[in-house]
Amino acid sequence: MNNLKSLNPETKNEPIYVDIWSDIVCPFCYIGKRNFENAVEQSGLKDSVKVVWHSFELAPDAETNPDASIYKELAKRKGWNMEQSKQIHKQMEQRAKESGLDYNFDKTIPANSFKAHRLLHLAKIHDVQNEVKELLFKGYFTDGKNIDDDIYLIEVGEEAGLKEKEIRSAMNRDDIEKEIEEDIQHARKLGIQGVPFFVLDQKYAVSGAQPVEAFVQALEKVKEERKEADSTIEGEVCGPDGNC
User: Fold this and answer.
1) What contacts 32, CB < 8 A, 6 or more positions away?
2) What's the first-to-final CA gap in the chain, in angstroms?
3) Which terminal residue of the chain has fewer beta carbons within 10 Å of its beta carbon, N or C?
4) pLDDT value for 85
5) C-beta of residue 74 within 8 angstroms of C-beta of residue 40
């Protein structure tokens, strides 16, 4: 956990904002999401934590191919043979199970994630970002959905309470594309090389899909600092009416 310079010096009365950079096609990002959520529950901070999801593209040049297997596509991209690719993916499925997630790479559709990030930025406007993120992760890793398909993205958005017209518009809005690019640029400024990447209370960075215990430790540190900031030493004072 690295100490980062605080962007806001006065945060004690605000929610604990947690900024998370991630990509929908990143298997560690879904695991990190679940482990972090379990840590929030354990820390008793469910009503105090506000998560903001930020875009990060692991493979901006990735092509969507519903007829290809993820094993073949990753083998080609990473320089693995097919046996290695399948073995690595099976290991990841087991890692996901440890966090209570069910990955099914036999069904995963290789896809470009940019459109899905567009939907997430629309979801942020309507405060349903976390719901959309969960649906996209499950769709990609468990259900074999094409996250680059407009019809599927509309289904996800509507399930989270968004309107079809707005979703279709978001697929082409310049301002949303600009927000995605700003997220990616901000990640570079912070020196983020991989995801998931968590910034707690604009001060503490946690990199990777850490165990629940590591997230609990980070949250407890933030909670303790908030408590210290709220403490006041009482002494003799003079009031505005002149009484001392």
Assistant:
1) 20, 22, 196, 198, 208, 209, 210
2) 47
3) C
4) 98
5) no
Q: Which two tokens stand for residue 119?
A: 């939907």
Could you tell me where the DSSP H helices lie in the chain? 27-43, 70-78, 82-98, 114-125, 129-141, 150-159, 164-170, 174-189, 212-230
DSSP H helix total and E strand total for the chain: 9, 5
Q: 94, 82 in Cβ contact below 8 A?
A: no
Q: Token digits for 85?
A: 């690719």
Is the model's pLDDT at 242 over the cut of 80?
Answer: no
Please report, as a single letter, which amino acid is at residue 140: Y
pLDDT at residue 189 tops 80: yes
Taken in order 178, 29, 131, 110, is the CA torsion positive or negative? positive
pLDDT digits (tens, 9 = 90+) for 54-83: 999 999 999 999 999 999 999 999 999 999
Task: Give the whole-angstrom CA distance, residue 194 versus residue 80.
Answer: 20
Fold that domain 2-60+112-226 belongs to in CATH: Glutaredoxin (3.40.30)
Q: What is the residue type of 59?
A: A
Q: Provide the whole-model pTM.
A: 0.89
| Tokens encoding 141 | 């890793």
Q: How confident is the model at residue 14 (pLDDT cuts 50, 70, 90)?
A: confident
